[in-house]
Amino acid sequence: MKHGGVFVHLKKPGSSQRLELNYYPAGNRFYEKYRMGTEMDHIGFSVEDVDRTYKRAISKGAKRAAAPFSNNGERLAYVKDPDGIWIEFFGKDKGKS
Question: Is the pTM of this model over 0.70?
Answer without folding.
Answer: no
